[in-house]
C-alpha cells in the first residue's frame, strides 16, 4: 500500500471543528505562500498554495492528533498544517526523488466539483488512478507513493486541506521542509 483513501476519516464532530477552524484561519490569519519555502521542483509553474502550520499546544492540533492515533497508533506526528490551494495551483509529481516521510491529506471543503480540478493522481507501474476531493476524505501517502494533483481551475474556489506530516522513524531530522 503506497496510497490509501479513507472515507469519513474523522468523526463528524472533529471534522466540523477542523473545517471551521481552517475557514477561520483563512479569513483571519497571515498565511505563508508555498513559493517561499517549497523546493522549486515542488512548485514548478504552480500558483501559490497558502499554508498555516498549527502550533503544537493548540486544542485543534491535539484533537487531530488523537484522531490520527485512533486510526494508526504507529504514526508519530511531525507537524500539522492547513493548505489553501488557490486557482492555478497544483502539486507536480512527487515520490520520484528524496521524499521526506509518510503523510496524510484530509479534504475540508463541504463540496467539490470535478471540473474545478485538484484531483489527486497516483501512479502504480504503468497505471494512473484518480481521487476526487470529498469532504472528510483522508488519503494516507507512504513515502514511496507517486502522486500529483491536477491544476485548480481559474474559477475554482479555494481547496482547503489538512496536511499531516509524520516523523520518519529512520530519520532524526528535526526541521521540516514544508
Descriptive report:
Helices cover 19% and strands 29% of the residues. The chain has 178 residues and is α+β, with helices and mostly antiparallel strands. The protein has one domain (3-166): Jelly Rolls, CATH 2.60.120. It has a seven-stranded antiparallel beta sheet, covered by helices on one side. A three-stranded antiparallel beta sheet has the order 7-6-9, with no helix packed on it. The longest helix is centred in the N-terminal third of the chain and has 17 residues, at 12-28. The protein is globular and about 40 Å long. The model is unreliable at 171-178 (pLDDT under 50).
> Low-confidence parts, pLDDT < 50 over ≥5 residues?
171-178
User: Which structural class is indicated by helix and strand composition?
Assistant: alpha+beta
CATH class value: Mainly Beta
Count of individual helical segments = 3
Summary of the model, kept short:
The chain contains three helices and ten strands, in the order E-H-E-H-E-H-E-E-E-E-E-E-E. The chain is of the alpha+beta class and 178 residues long.
Amino acid at each position: 500500500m503506497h496510497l490509501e483513501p479513507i472515507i469519513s476519516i474523522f468523526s463528524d464532530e472533529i471534522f466540523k471543528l477542523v473545517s471551521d477552524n481552517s475557514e477561520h484561519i483563512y479569513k483571519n490569519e497571515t498565511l505563508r505562500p508555498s513559493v517561499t519555502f517549497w523546493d522549486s521542483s515542488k512548485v514548478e509553474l504552480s500558483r501559490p498554495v497558502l499554508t498555516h502550520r498549527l502550533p503544537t499546544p493548540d486544542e485543534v492540533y491535539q484533537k487531530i492528533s488523537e484522531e490520527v492515533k485512533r486510526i494508526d497508533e504507529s504514526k508519530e506526528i511531525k507537524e500539522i498544517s492547513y493548505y489553501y490551494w488557490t486557482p492555478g495551483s497544483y502539486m507536480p509529481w512527487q515520490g520520484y526523488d528524496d521524499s521526506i516521510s509518510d503523510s496524510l491529506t484530509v479534504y475540508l471543503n463541504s463540496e467539490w466539483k470535478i471540473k474545478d480540478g485538484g484531483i489527486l493522481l497516483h501512479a502504480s507501474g504503468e497505471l494512473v488512478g484518480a481521487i476526487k476531493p470529498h469532504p472528510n476524505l483522508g488519503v494516507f501517502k507512504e513515502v514511496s507513493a507517486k502522486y500529483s494533483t491536477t491544476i485548480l481551475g481559474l474559477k475554482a474556489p479555494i481547496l482547503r486541506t489538512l496536511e499531516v506530516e509524520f516523523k520518519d522513524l529512520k530519520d532524526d531530522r528535526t526541521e521540516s521542509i514544508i
